[in-house]
Write a structure and sequence with these properties.
The complex is a heterodimer of chains A (about 230) and B (about 375). Chain A has seven helices and eight strands; from the N terminus they run H-H-H-H-H-E-H-E-E-E-E-H-E-E-E. Chain A has about 230 residues and is α/β, with parallel strands linked by helices. In chain A, helix 1 crosses helix 3. The N and C termini of chain A lie far apart (about 55 Å). In chain B, helix 4 runs antiparallel to helix 11, helix 6 runs antiparallel to helix 11 and helix 11 runs parallel beside helix 14. In chain B, the strands form four sheets. Chain B has a three-stranded antiparallel β-sheet. Classes of the chains: A alpha/beta (about 230), B alpha+beta (about 375).
């Protein structure tokens, strides 16, 4: 690599770090472009480790702040708050993407999440089920606070043999229809739901379609159900 | 004279009824003219969208999103591709972002025009409907000019759009906006401030803000209750932060805050804001750029899940996508705004007269394709 190219790449990397990717993308020469991108990725990684390493170094110096390790990630922050208030309710380690809870006192936790002034999750954005395999089903809740503008995702895993989760239909009213749909599609039962019926499918439909091992029934009230063709014709 | 005890009667509205905007059945318990209980029954249009998604690649899902909300197909495309791109951490060229915003806002105008027109039609005003459809037609012409389709576009792809804007599109769009803006005044004269229309909609079906939030009502229906909440501003995506526009909220102009008239009028105001965004976007759009530049060869998002929201004409459209790293999604959940809007009907319509139910239902602007999926 010539000195000119090296100089160009350092310039481009600086620009890229500032968020301006256009000059790099505008390079005609493919080899040079990929070199510049690789250099940028390297620089970014170095910057990242520098920032993550910095707080650990500072920790002993500022012990008063270190007592409560600041975590910007809402799932970690609020997961910890849940664990502090309702001990033993977490089902797995805290992580960045979601909070894994046990089903037992979900109703109380949900009530608290909505009423606690510093959280105030007033809106249940999305609720769905998931077939996670190994005989387990999962209910997922995406909560959002319009007042504080923060959001978390809560997951509750139950086994297929005993797929019961407390209903939160009376806390967030949209839970009524959301839970009916999840029951309809996954066969998760919501204890305490006041109108526990199927949502989209007829009442006498067999099976829960969104489970991965679902097989469609052959006839419905004497009407043959066409088989889904596998592959292209 | 003593109290007359009438017998309660259960009445079915739908599933085949023009004012239900699709195949929706309402089980209505009436006491004379008064509604005591109303239960929506849905699922007549269920096409297993989410199950289908688990059997096809990410890009094959896009045409199906068209068919969910067939009155705002562009907005649905947009919501889905934004979610997949967020999952893949894919950045799309600036020109593509502009084209997408232009399409989404044109679609918002088209969808609102239909919603407003049909609402008038529900209540008995036939003429405004024809005026609005006439103007909506011009938007559909522009879509046809761009991608060949008038209703179901499959226009936005992961990483780009299917076609670049054709020659003369920008001029046509500006011509349309110049023509269209004065028309809004005409709609207002024809319908908005029509005495009969106001009588039928003002003070009817009042939706308080806290009930709306609890039921997950979003979009214009929520804003009509006085909540200043718009994802384009509050949780901005694409390049909406580059444009100046207002978030319109209801103010109880003809009656109470959050009544049917407010829900109608917020849509009318939003059309004006969309025009504002369109003017800015059309003027600022970069002239050159390849709309296929960032199209990935194979769409394989990394393992993980995402919940991403966008603002469609009907409200917050959310896509929950779970990926296992393969080219086929493990799960796609569509959180449709019309679904949550319809869920509030039971709460909203109780205690009103039979004829008001049609007013209230129409003001929620539901699309059954999206509710049943």
């Amino acid at each position: 690599m010539s000195a000119d190219q090296e100089k160009l790449i350092t310039e481009l990397v600086e620009k890229g770090l500032a968020g301006d990717m256009d000059p790099i993308n505008a390079i005609e020469d493919r080899v040079l472009r990929s070199k510049a991108k690789a250099a940028l990725a390297k620089a970014k990684r170095a910057a990242k480790t520098a920032t993550t390493a910095a707080p650990t170094e500072e920790k002993p110096a500022t012990e008063t702040i270190a007592e409560t390790p600041p975590s910007d990630n809402p799932n970690k922050k609020f997961g910890k708050m849940i664990e502090d208030t309702f001990q033993g309710s977490l089902d797995a380690e805290l992580n960045d993407t979601h909070i894994q809870l046990k089903p037992d006192n979900w109703f109380e936790i949900a009530k608290w999440l909505k009423s606690e002034p510093s959280l105030y999750f007033d809106s249940l954005q999305c609720h769905t089920g998931m077939d996670v395999g190994e005989n387990m089903l999962e209910a997922r809740y995406n909560l959002h606070s319009m007042t504080h503008d923060h959001k978390i995702e809560i997951r509750i895993a139950v086994s297929r043999d005993k797929a019961n989760i407390p209903s939160i239909e009376q806390i967030w009213r949209i839970g009524d229809w959301f839970e009916r749909e999840t029951y309809d599609m996954f066969g998760i039962f919501f204890d305490g739901h006041r109108d526990h019926r199927r949502m989209l499918l007829p009442e006498d439909w067999e099976g829960y379609p969104l489970r991965k091992d679902y097989e469609v029934q052959e006839t419905y009230h004497g009407i043959a159900i066409p088989k889904v063709k596998v592959g292209w014709e | 004279m003593g109290v007359i005890h009438g017998e309660e009667m259960v009445l079915n509205i739908g599933p085949q009824h023009p004012s239900t905007h699709g195949v929706l059945r309402l089980k209505v318990k009436t006491d004379g003219e008064i509604i005591s209980e109303i239960t929506p029954v849905i699922g007549y249009l269920h096409r297993c969208f989410e199950k289908h998604c688990e059997n096809m690649t990410y890009d094959q899902v896009i045409p199906y999103t068209d068919r969910c909300d067939y009155l705002a197909a562009m907005a649905n495309n947009f919501g889905y591709v934004v979610a997949v791109e967020e999952l893949m951490e894919l950045k799309v060229p600036e020109k593509v972002e502009y084209i997408r915003v232009i399409m989404a806002e044109l679609q918002r105008i088209a969808s609102h025009l239909l919603a407003l027109g049909v609402y008038g039609l529900d209540i008995g005003a036939f003429t405004p409907f024809l005026f609005m459809l006439r103007d909506r037609e011009r938007i559909l012409d522009m879509f046809e000019m761009t991608c060949g389709a008038r209703l179901l576009y499959n226009y936005m792809w992961v990483g780009g759009v299917s076609h670049d804007l054709p020659k003369g599109f920008v001029e046509t769009a500006f011509q349309f906006l110049d023509y269209f803006e004065p028309q809004i005044e005409e709609y207002n004269n024809l319908l908005t401030y029509n005495k009969i229309f106001i009588e039928r909609t003002a003070d009817i079906g009042v939706l308080p803000a806290d009930v709306a939030i609890s039921y997950g009502v979003s979009g214009p229906n929520l804003r009509a209750s006085g909540v200043k909440w718009d994802l384009r501003k509050n949780d901005t995506y694409s390049i909406y932060d580059k444009f100046e526009f207002d978030v319109c909220i209801g103010d109880g102009g003809q009656g109470t805050l959050g009544d049917c008239w407010d829900r109608y009028y917020v849509r009318m105001l939003e059309v004006k804001e969309s025009v504002k965004i369109l003017r800015q976007a059309l003027a600022q759009m970069p002239k050159d750029g390849d709309v296929h530049q960032a199209l990935p060869k194979k769409i394989r998002p990394p393992k993980g899940s995402i919940y991403s929201r966008t603002e469609t004409p009907r409200g917050d459209l959310g896509f929950y996508i779970e990926s296992d790293g393969s080219p086929i999604p493990t799960r796609v959940k569509m959180r449709s705004p019309a679904f949550t809007s319809l869920s509030v009907l039971g709460e909203l319509a109780g205690g009103w007269m039979m004829s008001d139910v049609i007013s209230i239902l129409g003001s929620l602007d539901i699309v059954l394709g999206e509710i049943d999926r």
